[in-house]
Amino acid sequence: DVQLVESGGGSVQAGGSLRLSCVGSESTQSFRCMAWFRQRVGAGRERVAARASDGRIAYADFVKGRFTVSPETPKNTLDLQMNGLQSGDTAMYYCATSLACHTSASMWDDWGQGTQVTVS
Questions:
Q1: CA angle, corner 33, sides to 85 and 113, nearest 5?
Q2: Cα–Cα dist 79/12, whole Å
Q3: How far is CA 14 from CA 18, 46, 67, 92, in A?
Q4: pLDDT tens digits for 5-41?
Q5: SS3 at position 61
Q6: Cβ atoms 108, 4 nearer than 8 A
Q7: Terminal CA-CA length for the chain
């Protein structure tokens, strides 16, 4: 199994910034899509941003212009720079990997343990 380890969550005031990091355990990450999902209280997991194996990046509309995913170097990492944080961004953030960049969380193969982001 692929192991994913997230770090970088925490508490921040509205308008602040955080940077999340995800490191995958295998070099085969180069052939896989990596993504950040989030899960707010009482809601399902929603995809925040995904980076395909060819380097293409897709963002959810609700983070465009505020969040940025790292380029594909090294291939087994995925950093998420979050600027202009809002209270609505409060959630558990998860790193995930799969062979394809599915929109639905149920289609992803491997997940990290999550890191909490709280915006007040």
A1: 60
A2: 18
A3: 11, 21, 14, 17
A4: 999 999 999 999 999 999 988 655 556 899 999 999 9
A5: helix
A6: no
A7: 36
Q: Helices marked H in the chain — which ranges?
A: none
Entry field: residues in the chain: 120
Name the percent of the chain lying above pLDDT 90.
75
- Encode pLDDT of 74-87 as tens digits: 678 899 999 999 99
Q: How far apart are CA 99 and CA 29, in angstroms?
A: 9
- Could you write out the DSSP letters of every residue in 7-27? E--EEE-TT--EEEEEEES-G
- 10: β partners: 117
CA 31 to chain centre: 17
Work out whether strand 80-82 and strand 91-98 pair parallel, antiparallel, or are unpaired.
unpaired
